[in-house]
Design goal:
homodimer; alpha/beta; Rossmann fold; 42% helix; DNA-binding
DNA sequence: TGGCATAAAGTTACCGTTAACGCAACGATC
DNA sequence: GATCGTTGCGTTAACGGTAACTTTATGCCA
């Protein structure tokens, strides 16, 4: 069970004390040379740095975090890592946090509420300086723990409802409404919704609700839903679309919960001989990197993931510096492409 | 600069001592109730657990890690988080580590060697139980630090060369060779290579070398290379392919460093009126989720990312338990699709 | 030249947990 | 009934830093 320290690595990992001894100063002086260099004589500082370099000293942040007041860890809790759904958020978040010497500790709940509780607990046990978490809907116990931690909590991706502390995201219901309205404007009337809508994916549910509300408002027939609990992928989209059109051949537009599912939907429609966008329109959500490259190119909604990551980092730093909690709305954009372009573009009169 | 503890959270975070006091036992007994429950009387244990529940106790792993011998952190160093290149590896790695209560601490070097050194140092400062890192080619100082840490180091994605400790990956040169051989078998002769090949992306360089070696071996003319240092995306692929065919119209096959770049290459070819696969073949690497959904569907190489993540977790656990270092070769698969299917499939005689 | 602010280094007391050790109470053994 | 191994819990000393405080050396000014 012990970690292997074989082949000559028998010597122990250097500590502040090793450095201090070697240079002939107290431990605290070495610590100061790191934290507050200008309180140590320049010449002594140089000798200390040389010793650190020589011994390959790496500070022990466990000890630092325990002793000091700062911990430098930011817990990041996402619901999925699959495909690029949240990877780009983590990417830009991590880059921005790096400038403040904050380290990302990652957890992935896979849309599982029990797992979420366990992982949040686990993250908190590292006494992070802040926690960034996907979504604003969490089990009560999770909310309780996060609140009790007394650290900044930034909820990402979604907004609205009971924000624990600070939020950086957008309103998913209005995304759904925009999807419906775009389809309607393009002349589609019999809408369907297809994709992976997991029990704990409140965002997907909100988008669907927004879509349905807009359809109702436009006096359209009820949106036909055909969803699954499993994760979204092209194969799922292909299957769901095939089944959907078998039972509901009248459908003339399919909104997909994600681009990846839409890719499969497009494939199904091709196999079924339904022309897109003439016979059926397809709209999705996510702006996958391939959305503009499939044919027909996919109309979708592009949330600005890089910006969410960057703004989340800013929010974390602000909150650590005692700025009051706030909510930031992040822009998203409906990108109309071939898969829904039934109407000729308005004449530029 | 201090963390906000506003609105009634004035009370301090509970510690083992709080629990101990409340139950009327020593701190160590509470600690034991967590670590070795069967050394504490069942009735007492129940009271301790009740107190923990009531106070929302979350153990402080900084303290635990400092005091004990175990640290429960696994540092994961990747070169990119963009798109799904490594996200799925992290995903399956994290899931597998979870079973052993190991927490992922993430760092992203963005193919920057200086950043890699800084991040490895930062990760090591958390005294992780192990480090998983993309690639087997690292700056000397990084290797030195990782070796000196005296913990299991698992290098992922690539193999060969000087492995620090343990590796889980595949040989990228043979991927390149397979790509070339597939193109050749399909009747293509004038090969080109296109994509993002960053200075620190040794894997891309190895694939390219393998491709060139195979082309040379088959007595083909030199592979025409048109690469960029920036990250790969469809726009890059579109630009590079357009430029390539302007200067080298004789090219009849393009190997791409990544699927995402290939998506743009396909778009460029469509715009240029070159038929794929008849006039030009396109092969890529990565098996992006959309590869089977673009048209023509993309021939590509699929590395088994889930398996790499899973096997890396296994390697970490094995190494922590003192199993000797080893290297695992992970399978990859060339998936022939429409973009290179110039030859009729061999008759099944 | 004495007095005092200031700079530079040392002392000491934690931070919250684990691990080694100690010790009392108890049942089994001969 | 003295000996001995268990069981169950308490005591104490780290772990490697940080921060508050103290001490010593130095310079400056009246």
């Amino acid at each position: 069970m012990t970690v292997d320290l074989s082949e000559g690595a028998g010597r122990t990992v250097p500590t502040l004390a090793s450095i201090a001894e070697r240079v002939g100063v107290s431990v605290n002086t070495v610590s100061r040379a790191l934290r507050a260099p200008n309180t140590v004589r320049i010449e002594l500082r140089r000798r200390i740095n040389a010793a650190m370099e020589e011994l390959n000293y790496v500070p022990n942040r466990l000890a630092g975090g325990l002793s000091g007041t700062r911990s430098d860890i930011v817990g990041v809790v996402v619901t999925s890592l699959y495909y690029s759904e949240f990877a780009n958020i983590i990417d830009s978040l991590q880059l921005a946090l790096l400038e403040h010497d904050l380290q990302v500790m990652l957890a992935n709940t896979r849309y599982n509420a029990d797992q979420e509780l366990r992982l949040v607990r686990s993250i908190l046990s590292w006494r992070p300086a802040a926690v960034a978490i996907i979504g604003v809907d969490h089990p009560p116990k999770v909310v309780e723990l996060l609140k009790a931690a007394g650290i900044p909590i930034v909820e990402m991706w979604d907004t609205g409802g009971d924000v624990i502390d600070t939020a950086v995201g957008f309103d998913h219901a209005s995304v759904g409404a925009a999807q419906a309205n775009h389809l309607i404007a393009q002349g589609y009337r019999r809408l369907a919704f297809v994709g992976s809508v997991r029990e704990n994916d409140k965002r997907a549910q909100k988008r669907l609700s927004g879509l349905e509300a807009a359809a109702t408002k436009a006096s359209l027939p009820d949106v036909v839903k055909h969803t699954a609990q499993q994760g979204g992928n092209p194969e799922l989209g292909e299957r769901l679309a095939t089944e959907l059109l078998q039972s509901h051949p009248e459908i003339d537009a399919i909104a997909c919960n994600s681009d990846v599912v839409a890719f499969g939907v497009l494939r199904a429609l091709r196999k079924l001989g339904r022309r897109v966008p003439e016979d059926i329109g397809v709209i999705a959500f996510g702006d996958n990197e391939a959305a503009s490259c499939v044919s027909p190119s996919l109309t979708t909604v592009r949330p600005d993931r890089e910006r969410i990551g960057k703004l989340t980092a800013e929010a974390i730093v602000s909150r650590i510096n005692d700025v009051t909690p706030y909510t930031t709305l992040v822009e998203w954009e409906l990108i109309a492409r071939e898969s829904t372009s039934r109407m000729p573009p308005p004449s530029p009169s």
